[in-house]
Automatic annotation (TrEMBL):
Active site: C358
NCBIfam families registered for this protein in UniProt: cyclopro_CfaB (NF040703)
One GO-annotated biological process of the protein: methylation
Protein name: Cyclopropane-fatty-acyl-phospholipid synthase
Keyword vocabulary terms for this entry: Lipid metabolism, Methyltransferase, S-adenosyl-L-methionine, Transferase
Domain Polyketide synthase-like methyltransferase: from-to ranges: 122-374
GO molecular function: methyltransferase activity
Tagged with keyword Methyltransferase: yes
CDD domains tied to this protein: AdoMet_MTases
TM segment ranges: none
Family named by the database record: Belongs to the CFA/CMAS family.
Length: 394
């Protein structure tokens, strides 16, 4: 059967072993770090053009198995596809229609998998977004607390202020802002599983007088400027390019004149939003974040400006997210037996690839993460931001 192997594979020098369903195997280089076990004979001929989408899909669907650390698997998959594919073969960016029903279904698919599964590898507050490493030596719990503090400081959050948390997740930021900064927080989500646990935690901490969390679409938020500050973390990736203008207009109308809006989200490498990574983006769209679309930083800033929000500060946390994802991946890999009891094998395969693959993607600058701070100026153009950033780091 090895005779059917695409000729292009035979000249590679990679620490990769191919093993067939009949036991035959071939080393593509010395000292293999990863073994790719072909289960489906039809996969063999397709390995001559091994996009990351093809390889990932074959693993998820059981056409092949992988032996070795997930970090090594992702690294070798990239080297394999780079050797045989042209980076410029990337498909043009896809655009999807985003309405309330489809967005709710997509959020349900990703976030309602299992609270207990997420609890295995997230920090104690279950903050499912990029952490913030002030020195680089922090553990995950410390780095996530530092991220929540960093957000609140950027917002110059003060006791008694009304904070809108768009995409509140399991409520970690909402509770932190109420507990540590005395804010009155209103959070929304389209994940019923997240909402149920978030409300439980609000009650457990006795914060029900300061934190209200609802199942609500961002398009249904009030447009009366009732909030002093607005924060959105890991949310606008689900909005879609077509709805970015509506999204930022909604945030602008929700915050009072002079108020601040902080958007924390993943951004694309290319200005047109097309994915990189020879099929990695297509895999994410198919299996992880259906209809997710990453705008470029320039697009996000343009849409915020057009919505009447003045951008006053931008910070890239790309390497912070690479580290966060590495830690998430390591924590999941350490608890695979427990994870296998909580989710279906197919889902676990998706998440093993996703966490390790995204860590690699951020490391390689295929994608970025930006915090964009903006203000809704008053009618006379004024606002109350300090003259320098010194207060952020005291």
């Amino acid at each position: 059967m090895l005779a059917q192997l695409p000729a292009a594979l035979r000249g590679l020098q990679l620490p990769l072993r191919l093993r067939l369903w009949d036991g035959h195997q071939l080393d593509l280089g010395p000292d293999p770090e990863v073994t790719l076990v072909v289960r489906d004979p039809q996969l063999l001929s397709r390995l001559g053009r091994p996009s990351l989408d093809l390889l990932g899909s074959a693993y998820v669907e059981g056409a092949m198995d992988l032996q070795g650390s997930m970090a090594a698997v992702i690294r070798l998959a990239d080297r394999l596809s780079a050797a045989l594919l042209d980076e410029h073969d990337a498909a043009p960016p896809s655009r999807a229609a985003h309405d309330r029903a489809s967005d709710a279904a997509d959020i349900h698919y990703h976030y309602d998998l299992s609270n207990d599964f997420y609890r295995l590898w997230l920090d104690r507050d279950m903050v499912y977004s990029c952490a913030y490493y002030e020195t680089g030596a922090e553990d995950l719990d410390s780095a996530q607390q530092a991220k929540l503090r960093h957000l609140c400081r950027k917002l110059r959050l003060a006791p008694g202020e009304r904070l809108l948390d768009v995409g509140c997740g399991w409520g970690g930021l909402a509770r932190f802002a109420a507990r540590e900064y005395g804010a009155e927080v209103y959070g929304i989500t389209l994940s019923r599983e997240q909402l149920a646990l978030a409300r439980e935690r609000v009650l457990a901490e006795g914060l029900q007088g300061r934190v209200q969390l609802d199942y609500r679409d961002y398009r249904d938020l009030p447009a009366d400027g009732r909030f002093d500050k607005v924060v959105s973390v890991g949310m606008f990736e689900h909005v879609g390019h077509a709805n970015l203008a509506v999204y930022f207009q909604t945030l602008q109308r929700a915050v009072k004149p002079g108020g601040l809006v902080l958007n924390h989200g993943i951004t694309a490498k290319h200005t047109d939003g097309r994915p990189v990574g020879r099929g990695g983006g297509e895999f994410i769209d198919r299996y992880v974040f259906p209809h997710g679309e990453l705008p470029h930083l320039a697009t996000a800033v343009a849409r915020m400006s057009e919505a009447g929000l003045e951008v006053v500060d931008v910070e890239s946390l790309r390497l912070h997210y690479a580290r966060t994802l590495h830690l998430w991946s390591e924590r999941l890999e350490q608890r695979l037996d427990e994870a296998a009891r909580l989710v279906h094998e197919r889902a676990l395969r998706i998440w093993r690839l996703y966490l390790a693959g995204c860590a690699y993607a951020f490391e390689r600058e295929w994608i970025n993460l930006h915090q964009i701070l903006a203000v809704r100026p008053r009618a006379d153009g004024s606002h109350d931001l300090p003259w320098s950033r010194a207060d952020l780091y005291r």
